[in-house]
Write a structure and sequence with these properties.
GO molecular function: ubiquitin protein ligase activity; zinc ion binding
CATH architecture of the largest domain: 2-Layer Sandwich
Largest sheet: 4 strands, antiparallel
Structural class: alpha+beta
Number of strands: 12
Shape: flat
Subcellular location: Nucleus
Keywords: Coiled coil, Metal-binding, Nucleus, Zinc, Zinc-finger
Protein name: RING-type domain-containing protein
Order of helices and strands: HEEEHHEEEEEHEEEE
Helix content: 25-40%
InterPro entries: NOSIP, Znf-NOSIP, Znf-RING_euk, Znf_RING, Znf_RING/FYVE/PHD
Length: about 300
């Protein structure tokens, strides 16, 4: 009975499907599970159920304490970078002034040598003729500028005289950024978010608490697209938002007016440790090493 060569190793000039599968050759894709996604009611920074949630204009939700601490840390870091940049500018200015002073001193020395080159110079005490009495253009006497250059000359073969490349600090930006969306974020642009809890929940803010849409009474999950009203902070599902809020332009809970541009879609997921929105597929590419038969793996990426 003939054997199926695709199921066995052989000496063909190409890899069979079974051999590629055993070696893990090619691009492997896997959809992320529930454990790899951040719940919609979790903070983007601490990944815990949020407390006093605040939302940015891009739909990222944070705990109030977490986002205030993050913005404060960014402010301190910006202040430190500004101080370093100011010190560097001061040092550059001092170096430029010193360079100008040395250049002027060199010009004065050259002028003095040019005008007094043929006049012999004597010692003040003994009136003994100086060794280099004629300070002309062909003089071998080393000027102060040349002495300074020789003294500070860099030598690559001596560790103590090896030149070092100056690290230039660019002027830092004074804007704080969102830790999740990487866009500019100010404290006054954040608005509080209020979720409607289901009546079965006894303890507010507990780990087992669940939320619902105040219009259709549907339990909110990661499968639904959520919309928050920036004027009052109440959260609805996308279907009720398009049906009522966009048409009536009034919040159904507090009767406060809202505009279409004030409706913010909340982001699902969106951290470095969890899947993001619709990009819930992880890929792993493996190709074969030349001549070794071993696979070289590229790190998996979420696309």
């Amino acid at each position: 009975m003939p054997q199926r060569h695709s199921k066995n190793n052989n000496d063909l000039a190409f890899f069979t499907y079974d051999e590629k599968k055993k070696l893990g050759y090619g691009t492997q894709k896997e959809r992320l599970g529930k454990d790899s996604l951040k719940p919609f009611d979790a903070c983007c920074l601490c990944l815990k159920p949020f407390i006093d949630p605040l939302c940015c204009q891009k739909g990222h939700v944070f705990c109030k304490e977490c986002i205030l601490g993050c913005l404060l840390a960014q402010k301190k870091d910006i202040k430190r970078k500004l101080a370093i940049h100011a010190a560097q500018q001061k040092q550059e200015k001092e170096e430029e002034e010193e360079k100008l002073m040395l250049q002027k001193a060199q010009e004065l020395d050259a002028f003095d040598q040019q005008n007094h080159g043929a006049v012999p110079q004597y010692n003040d005490r003994s009136h003994v003729r100086d060794k280099h009495s004629f300070q002309g253009a062909n003089s071998v006497k080393v000027t102060s500028y040349e002495e300074e250059a020789l003294r500070t000359m860099k030598a690559f073969w001596l560790p103590s005289a090896t030149p070092e490349a100056a690290v230039k600090v660019e002027a830092p930006s004074t804007d704080t950024i969102c830790p999740e969306g990487k866009e500019k974020l100010r404290l006054k642009s954040l608005f509080p978010v209020y979720f409607t809890e289901e009546s079965d929940d006894r303890k507010s803010g507990s780990l087992n608490s669940s939320y619902m849409c105040p219009s259709c009474k549907v339990t909110l999950t990661n499968t639904l697209t959520l919309v928050a009203v920036s004027t009052c902070g109440h959260v609805y599902c996308k279907k009720c938002s398009d049906r009522f809020l966009v048409a009536d332009k009034v919040c159904l809970v507090c009767d406060k007016g809202c505009k279409e541009k004030g409706l913010v879609c909340l982001e699902k997921g969106g951290t470095g440790f969890s899947g993001h929105g619709n990009h819930l597929e992880a890929t792993d590419f493996k190709h074969l090493g030349s001549g070794s038969g071993l696979g070289l793996v590229r790190p998996a990426a979420t696309t």
